[in-house]
Design brief:
The strands form two sheets. Strands 1, 2, 3, 5, 7, 8 and 11 form a seven-stranded mixed sheet that branches. Helices cover 12% and strands 36% of the residues. The longest helix has 17 residues. It is mainly beta. Strand 7 and strand 8 form a beta hairpin.
C-alpha cells in the first residue's frame, strides 16, 4: 500500500470510530446570546426511534444508547405516520449575556389531548453528568414553566442556569412532524 495513503486511512478510520462511539461529537450545541431572536433547534439535534414505545429516560441516558441516536440535519423533524415513539436530544450553550433574559422553548405540533388519542410529549432536563434534573408531561400545565398557548404546540420557559441538555419524548397517533425552536 502506498505510504501517503496509510495516514489518510488511519485518520478516516479514527474519525469513523469517533462518530460511532461518540455521536455527540458532530452535533454542535445551539449558541444562545442576547442577539438571538429565534432559532430552529432540530438541525442541531439527534433523534432515536423507539419502535416499542417502551424506552425510559434511564434507558436512553445509558451509554449503550449513545450510538443509536442519529444526527439531524434539517430544521423540522418529520417522521410520518408511525407507531414509534421518538426521543430527541439537543444541547444549549448560553452566553453570559443571555443568562438574565427570558427564553422560551417551542415544541410542536403535535399537541395531544390525553385520553382522546395515543400520544404525548415529555421533556427531560439533564445535567452535564447525565443525571436527570427534572421531567414533566407537557400539556398538563402542572408547572409554571409551561405556558398555555393557542397554537398546536407547547411553550416552556427555559432556565439558562440549568437547562443545557434537553431530551424530548414524542409520540403521536397523527403525522409526527415536529418543530423545535428557541
Amino acid at each position: 500500500m502506498n505510504a501517503p495513503v496509510r495516514p489518510l486511512m488511519r485518520n478516516t478510520t479514527a474519525l469513523f470510530l469517533a462518530q460511532i462511539f461518540s455521536p455527540r461529537l458532530f452535533v454542535q450545541p445551539l449558541e444562545i446570546s442576547e442577539s438571538l431572536d429565534h432559532a430552529a433547534i432540530a438541525g442541531q439535534s439527534q433523534y432515536l426511534e423507539d419502535q416499542s414505545g417502551g424506552l425510559t429516560i434511564d434507558d436512553v441516558l445509558a451509554p449503550r444508547f449513545n450510538s443509536r441516536f442519529i444526527n439531524s440535519t434539517i430544521d423540522e423533524l418529520h417522521f410520518g405516520l408511525t407507531r414509534s415513539a421518538y426521543w430527541v436530544r439537543f444541547d444549549l450553550n448560553w452566553s453570559e449575556s443571555a443568562i438574565e433574559l427570558p427564553w422560551l422553548l417551542e415544541i410542536g405540533p403535535p399537541k395531544h389531548v390525553e385520553g382522546i388519542a395515543r400520544g404525548g410529549s415529555d421533556i427531560y432536563i439533564v445535567d452535564d453528568n447525565g443525571r436527570l434534573l427534572s421531567s414533566r408531561r407537557l400539556g398538563r400545565y402542572e408547572s409554571d414553566k409551561e405556558l398555555k398557548t393557542l397554537t398546536e404546540g407547547y411553550v416552556v420557559r427555559l432556565n439558562p442556569q440549568t437547562d443545557h441538555q434537553i431530551y424530548l419524548r414524542i409520540e403521536s397517533s397523527r403525522d409526527l412532524h415536529l418543530h423545535i425552536s428557541v
